[in-house]
Amino acid sequence: MLLPMYRLADRLGRVIVKSGLKFGEAAVGQSGRARQSSTAASASTKPARPVVQLTLTPAQVPVAAVILLLTVGLVAAATLAFDRITHPMAVLVTFVPTMAGPPAIPTMLATPNPAAATPDPNVVEQLAQINVVVSPLPAGPTVTAPPNPLSIGGTIYYAYRHEGYTNLWAQVLGRPQPVRLTAGAWDDRDPAISPDGRSLAFASHREGSWNLYILDLTTGQTRRLTSGPEFKANPYWSPDGAYMVFEIYRQDNLDIAIISAQGGDYIPLTSDPAADYEPAWSPAGQPPGRSIVWVSMRSGNPDLWRMSLDDPFEPKFVQLTNTPAIQESNPAFSPNGEVVVYTDAASPYDITWQH
Question: Hey, is 65 helix, strand or coil?
Answer without folding.
Answer: helix
